[in-house]
Amino acid sequence: MTSVLVWALMAIGVASLLAAVLGVLVAADVYDRLHFIGPGSLFGPAAFALAVVIDEGPLSQAGLKSMLTALMLVGLGPVLVHATARAAYVRERGRLTVEEPQA
After folding, report:
1. Which helix (H) or strand (E) holds 1?
2. How many CA atoms lie within 13 A of 62 on its CB side?
3. Could you list the residue range(s) of the whole structural domain that residue 20 is in?
4. Would residue 31 count as lying in a domain?
5. What's the rounded Cα separation, in Å, for the pair 100 and 103?
6. Would 11 be classed as within a structural domain?
7. Residue 102 lies in a domain
8. How far apart are CA 30 and CA 33, in angstroms?
9. Residue-wise pLDDT tens for the chain (103 aa)?
10. 27, part of any domain
11. Residue 50: CB partners within 8 Å, gap ≥ 6?
């Protein structure tokens, strides 16, 4: 039963990353691409880490390393997406400040 669950989690991880890659390929601009990268960077590593923990055990060396890696990727992924969006905004507009709408 555990091997079926591990294979299912691996398939979910691969499918989420493939969907992210396909989204990046068909997206129109950098902001649309970032919307596809975000979920892939969260669900893929979490599914892979959970598969390793189920297969190897939560207190094994591989289980602990996979949990630590997944936590770092899940924690830092949104920060990287936000920083990339901010850099793209500055590159397009030349500055970061948002203009006030005129009445």
Report:
1. none
2. 10
3. 2-92
4. yes
5. 9
6. yes
7. no
8. 5
9. 889 999 999 999 999 999 999 999 999 999 999 998 888 888 999 999 999 999 998 899 999 999 999 999 988 988 999 999 999 999 988 887 777 777 6
10. yes
11. 9, 70
